[in-house]
Amino acid sequence: MEKSTKEFGDLNAAPPPGSRRGSYMAPDGRRYSAQGRRISTVDDVFGEIKEGGPNYRDVGWLGTVALMMKTQIGLGVLSIPAVLDTLGMIPGLIVLLAIAIITTWSDYMVGVFKLRHRSVYGIDDVGMLLFGPIGREFFGVVFVLFWIFVAGAGMLGISIGLNAVSSHGACTAIFVAVACVIGFSLGSIQTLGAVSWLAWVGVACILTGIFTVTVAVGLQDRPSAAPQTGVFVADYKLFNNPSITDALTACSSLVFAYAGTPAFFSIVSEMREPAHYTRSLMICQSVVTATYICIGVVVYYFCGTYVASPALGSAGVLLKKIAYGFALPGLCVTTILVTHIAAKYLLLRLLRGSYHLTDNTFRHWATWLGCTAFISLTAYVIASAIPVFGGLVSLVGALLGTLMCFQPMGCMWLYDHWSEARTTKWYLGVAWSAFVILSGTFLMIGGTYGSVVSIMDSYATDGGTSAWSCADNSNSAGPG
């Protein structure tokens, strides 16, 4: 295809000083040979991306949709029917839509901020711009901890699925170890562009499993947890009167369902055309929100207070096996993707500015595999060793997930627009940003409190679960 000089510059012009002999650096940051063939791309984050090395700028806008959806669907979707049971169907849907709107704006700000500040790769770079070195290290630690715990939750989810499908065919600790190996091996694929096809598989599988249960509960006479004799009428509630603790915990679960936001920094940084980010975001958020509403309303309508959490257990043992059989690849992809994103952050911190980042050198591979191994093994230890893991994941989601989905994005808008003219639009922007910051802080504090109370109640009831347990966990509530 003929390349326009408008896009790439004058290919016949003499190379500028400092350029490689026989090559030309176009205004778009791409280097071309004298014959017009692209030989490298210079990126503000990754440096010069050359032929033969990992291509860190190879995610198309459709691949971006898949990656965005997979970081969200699977985090909290299976607990949404139980959230509606806690809040009541109408208040639950109102809160869900409110959180969807706020997090969509936050996600949008990620793309806008990236286009304004091309050297930003992760939320730690945002912290550096906003608060200096302390902000950088604070948000970097929060980012890694959050995704390590999500990777641990994914490993636990895989073990639940394997137990369900195999009728507890092996010790649960073995299944968690298998999940760790899956996360490490496929999470070590070098680029998100190469992982994006897995994201499509994961999205399709998790949606198939979830919608299988959604259809099944509508066709069955009653949910599996309901009394199996007599007339059954679903006791769903349009409104409910939960305690403050239960309400805050339910709201945190909804935030957790949309908590893919911090990963969007990494995704937009690897897009071929970051200008297409908003298009991908709107498709992602529309599909995710519609899916959440459909699953939540239908499953809760037919199951009422007998809804299971995770929701895949609501239609009985056979349907649970079928649903988890479909969903298992999706759970695996979730673990792979979050392991990759956390490890890639560490790789950038260690090799940024070095040619080893984009060359397949021994140091590159040793560092990259060391990062994925560290994330995988840490997540495995957390998933296996800490009692009351579900409550702990809720705590981390409320404390760290909310912290990365609300407050920084309000601060990002203020950072970029504070010095602009004081117009009506400016005042509305300031008011909205302040609302996002304050609401995020409230949900963070309230959700953390509710999660702590939930962990204490769990210990008071059964003392938690044992470390490296062999017990079947497919009949208990795992992380959503």
Write a concise keyword list for the protein shown above.
4 strands; mainly alpha; 480 residues; Amino acid/polyamine transporter I; single chain; four-stranded antiparallel beta sheet; 16 helices
Description:
The structure is a single chain. The protein has 480 residues and is mainly alpha-helical. The protein folds into two domains: 43 residues, no CATH class; 406 residues, Amino acid/polyamine transporter I, CATH 1.20.1740.10. The protein has 16 helices and four strands. The chain has a four-stranded antiparallel sheet, with no helix packed on it. Helix 9 crosses helix 16. It starts with a helix and ends in an 18-residue tail after the last helix.
Per-chain topology:
Elements: H1 5-8, E1 23-25, E2 30-33, E3 38-43, E4 47-50, H2 61-72, H3 80-87, H4 89-116, H5 123-131, H6 133-166, H7 172-187, H8 192-219, H9 244-257, H10 261-269, H11 277-303, H12 317-351, H13 362-385, H14 389-405, H15 407-417, H16 424-462
Antiparallel strand pairs: 1-2, 2-3, 3-4
Region (Disordered): 1-27
Subcellular location: Membrane
Family: Belongs to the amino acid/polyamine transporter 2 family.
